[in-house]
Amino acid sequence: MTVRWGVIGTGGIARSFVGDCTAAGVEFVAVGSRTRASADAFAAEFDIPRAHGSYADLVADPDVDAVYVATPHSRHAEDALLAIDAGKHVLVEKAFTITAEQARRVVDAARREDVVVMEAMWTRFLPQMTMIRELIAEGRIGRPRFVEATHHQALPTDPHHRLRDPELGGGAILDLGVYPISFVVDVLGVPTDVVAAGTLSAEGVDTQMGIVTTHDGGAQSMVHFSLDVRTPNTASIIGDDGRIDIDATWYTPTTWRVRDRDGAVVEEYDSREELTGYAHEVRAFEAMIASGDHEGGAMDPEQTVAIMAVMDEARRQVGVRYAADGGSADGESADAESAAGLEAPPAVP
Ligand SMILES: NC(=O)c1ccc[n+]([C@@H]2O[C@H](COP(=O)([O-])OP(=O)(O)OC[C@H]3O[C@@H](n4cnc5c(N)ncnc54)[C@H](OP(=O)(O)O)[C@@H]3O)[C@@H](O)[C@H]2O)c1
Fold first, then answer.
1. pLDDT for 313-335, tens place per residue?
2. Which of 13, 36, 181, 299 gets mutated to test ligand 1 (max ligand atoms within 8 A of its CB)?
């Protein structure tokens, strides 16, 4: 079965994603943009047969089976729901939404309409990550007790750029922090406690943040992310019988090794020849459509909701508020946590 893809949005990631996936044989049949001219230019560049001058026209295209949402996070819920209501499967860029409450609405709508919805957390679909999950499940490092990971990039400083604009869900957490947070939840499960500290820009978004999570059984993680500085971006999973060290850049195909509990290298891997990763997530998504098994897999929608709840809670502690948060910070956060089964930390007097 060939899945016919439509794309919503013609910005940076849409270009990278469509370029990579076209090279891997994925079929794109239509693109939708807020402007006809952008849709036409994108369609011409990537040899896509149909261009639509609105997102509504794209989702109404009867030849589109699945929609890839590549707009700013602030639009993700609205654009995903548009596609779901039109009966399309939908792959939504990270961060999946702005809040856990929005994520819950999107996941529930997809369930009701019996379509696949998945967060495009492409890193989880790399063969390297599949191998790491298998090594952990085989007990090669014992019980994971601690995960550490960073995501630092030196990104545009223009306060009007979407990365800095609260109206568009700007800030480090939703763009960069979501990678290490998703990694932690993948390895250790949903945390029972989240403690965050961060720095805000003049616009009120987080320019950098550190989070410590605690999990059932006492395992912990420490993640840090920033919009303003570049570091190597490495990750480690430390177990009670060894550890896995992933070199720079840990969330892309790279080199990595397994060490015993004394630190000696016991296995070494080089995954750099893998594809960038977008095609892996697309193939996994298409397999879910074909099998009729619309949930589970490497990026289960319930985990996506839980990851959004962790980010809601970290934002609440640091003081990053978006319009989508609505109401009082405490009330909104408590709703999101209960939606994802995350316990609220005690209120600070
Ligand atoms: N997976 C990855 O590796 C990766 C990498 C980068 C970004 N992302 C994610 O992809 C999403 C888009 O990021 P991007 O860097 O591609 O952003 P971008 O370059 O600004 O493009 C976003 C596109 O969304 C559409 N859009 C709709 N409403 C908009 C608004 N109010 N302001 C600006 N654009 C609007 C525009 O397309 P039209 O004008 O055609 O409607 C625009 O070109 C974000 O959620 C981001 O986190 C993922």
1. 999 999 999 999 986 444 444 44
2. 13
Q: Does any ligand 1 atom lie closer than 6 A to the CB of residue 73? A: yes
**184 and 301 in contact (C-beta within 8 Å)?**
no
- CA 92–ligand 1 middle distance (angstroms): 11
- 182: Cβ below 6 Å to ligand 1? no
- List all residues 6 or more positions away from 241 whose beta carbon is below 8 Å from its beta carbon: 139, 140, 141, 142, 143, 260, 261
| Residue of 321, 281, 287, 295 whose CA lies nearest to 21 | 281
- For residue 261, give every residue at least 6 positions away whose Cβ sits within 8 Å of its Cβ, in sequence order, or none: 142, 240, 241, 242, 243
Alpha carbon distance 280, 197 (integer Å): 34
CATH 3.40.50.300 fits 124-278+305-340, yes or no: no
Question: Token pair of 332, please?
Answer: 């909104």
Instruction: Using the mean position of ligand 1's atoms as its centre, give its distance from the Cα of residue 93 in Å.
Output: 9
What whole-number distance in Å separates Cα of residue 102 and Cα of residue 335?
A: 11
Q: Is the dihedral of CA 85, 86, 87, 89 positive or negative?
A: negative
Binned at pLDDT 50, 70 and 90, residue 1 comes out as: confident
Per-residue model confidence as pLDDT tens digits over 205-226: 999 999 999 999 999 999 999 9
Q: Residue ranges of the domains in the chain?
A: 4-120, 124-278+305-340
9 lines ligand 1 (CB under 6 A): yes
The 3-state DSSP class for residue 202 equals: coil
DSSP three-state, residue 199? strand
The pLDDT value given to residue 349: 24
CATH number of the domain at 4-120, out of 3.40.190.10, 3.40.50.720, 3.30.465.10, 3.90.950.20?
Answer: 3.40.50.720
In angstroms, what is the span from residue 205 Cα to ligand 1's centroid?
18
